[in-house]
Amino acid sequence: xxxxxxxxxxxxxxxxxxxxxxxxxxxxxxxxxxxxxxxxxxxxxxxxxxxxxxxxxxxxxxxxxxxxxxxxxxxxxxxxxxxxxxxxxxxxxxxxxxxxxxxxxxxxxxxxxxxxxxxxxxxxxxxxxxxxxxxxxxxxxxxxxxxxxxxxxxxxxxxxxxxxxxxxxxxxxxxxxxxxxxxxxxxxxxxxxxxxxxxxxxxxxxxxxxxxxxxxxxxxxxxxxxxxxxxxxxxxxxxxxxxxxxxxxxxxxxxxxxxxxxxxxxxxxxxxxxxxxxxxxxxxxxxxxxxxxxxxxxxxxxxxxxxxxxxxxxxxxxxxxxxxxxxxxxxxxxxxxxxxxxxxxxxxxxxxxxxxxxxxxxxxxxxxxxxxxxxxxxxxxxxxxxxxxxxxxxxxxxxxxxxxxxxxxxxxxxxxxxxxxxxxxxxxxxxxxxxxxxxxxxxxxxxxxxxxxxxxxxxxxxxxxxxxx
Length: 469
Fold this sequence. Notes:
Spore Coat Polysaccharide Biosynthesis Protein SpsA, Chain A, Jelly Rolls, 24% helix, 5-stranded mixed β-barrel, 35% strand
């Protein structure tokens, strides 16, 4: 019996700001090593002798981030369902069960922004728990705690199931505790709730019909109203708007009589805070993690990371410092759970910093704003080989393009021209134009915009390979 990975790829990008943002949540960021968490999750279920093709459930805002990763990894068999807005894990699991087309398959619900370091132990738990899923039970992976953690829910395991000593009954779910309660729970043998679930899809559909029939009906309506585009199915917006926000744990697991837990140690972390990132990181003799261009003297038990500028610190203890090109986070590590409130305050002051990075990813490549003034802005544009921007024009601005590296093919009005490094072209306002990369390496160019309005919404698209016209 094959296992279908249900990769959850939503998220709001708040808890690891400024490395993650709303339009670039943490699963797409290179937080552990050079690959993104989403890439790691896909590679972790790539063995087709064990895993069926993955079903990815993501937010429509991240459509091209998902497609770009799949293209880069040459994964062609994945199915993608896009949610018009986030409605938590219950909706994702139900839609996945409704969409399943193969008999004799089990579903493994996996958040794509978690880390599993010990894949051999993970596979061993799957093998041990698989017989339980065939008896019509839900299996939740319960992580053996390594320290009192206040950011996780806990599970008290009960008696082992007959004939399956690796899987136990669930005696009790415990909400996120304070530090003293977390320590007592660990002493009592409680486990962390990983948010990883393993079950037969029909088990979920049968149980949801009893416990959550309205939610199930809305998920079925959303699936039926889905619209196909570029190999993705975008779920019905009206049905999603009518749904309540329900975690799978609350809607199903805490109410069903068919729940079980598999205790395990698989090198798991949800990377849900900068404190969790510090715990996972390689540290120096002072227990300080230094990632990127960082210089730290006499600094202890701290996490210091830079994605650009050099960060130099001295004489700090128990601090978290994260620097990107446009923002710096500084806080005591013990206050890691306060970042949601900080993020909310940031949204009120500067929404752009909460939404996306200076480098904005597009299906054809990326752009980064280098400078801006009252009537101008300068961008660094990268176009991937074989990709093209939409055929477009602007009412309020003119553009001047200078090729730095690669080859640009430009349609400007009724003329077409190839530009090579150190060559440039001026595009007057109101002129229909299109930029593409016919070469085999990335095209890098500098764009200088000038005009009385420079917003991204001053784009009239005539033709677009990505369905945005």
